[in-house]
Sequence to fold (305 residues):
Amino acid sequence: MDKGRIVAGFLAPHPPHLVYGENPPQNEPRSKGGWEQLRWAYERARKSVEALKPDVLLVHSPHWTTQLGHHFLGVPKLSGKSVDPIFPNLFRYQFQLDVDVELAEACCAEAEQAGLVTQMMRNPRFRVDYGTITTLHMIRPQWDIPVVGISANNSPYYLNTKEGLEEMDRLGKATQRAIEKTGRRAVLLASNTLCHHHFHEEPAVPEDMSKEHPQSYDGYLWDMRVIELLRRGHTQEVFQLLPQFIDEAFAEVKSGAFTWMFAAMGYPEMPGELHGYGTVIGTGNAVMEWNLEKHRAQAPQVVTA
Ligand SMILES: [Fe+2]
Fold:
């Protein structure tokens, strides 16, 4: 078997408003659109996924919260209705997905070997969370690529940010080893919003974009600072700033997906491609891509005699 590899990672946020704005047949509520900047950003990201032809999409979602350990979807086919508990008026989605159980089990085993508490999720009637579903729908609405779903263990919240994110770093490195051993071409999806300060009241028409803007100017400035560093490929600097960004912008990256993805990719100091930025109920969302496959192809070839 050929050695597997991560072909790309995406920052792929999950506000259910984006699915609501798309009006796919799977979602019950109907809209007149909205949040186009972000939805068009996802359209650009989809083209990259299409060109990369991955075997599997791995997603780490803050809204599959597990108190004890890191869990992995472990049922070959899952279906049902996923509802956002905060926005049930916007997201009631009939999902159907295929899980790459072999890779999920390999990730679980590697993470356990790295000293993490892990668990395979074997309940065939499990209701997949709206974060996982929204990210997957927005990046690949055809649902024709198997997935690995990873829970967000709450360690950054009930321990502290440093210890919690150290676990996510180990989880990311374990994921990378599992991908390599199973020979997969894998795309990673970090399902995180950036600044998470949000409005507390929804407009009468949720998709009324005249009401949509950053909730916090300071949070917006933080988002621009972090995005600019990522666009320049200053990954190390971003991770040095991450605890402060999390505290001051209430950034959702605290839940771990962002660290998980970068750890798996080896924290590459390569420019991320920003597909678009926009707010959803005032929170900051960026769709960004780190195309490792393209980066490898552009790297200078070593010439040997
Ligand atoms: Fe969220």
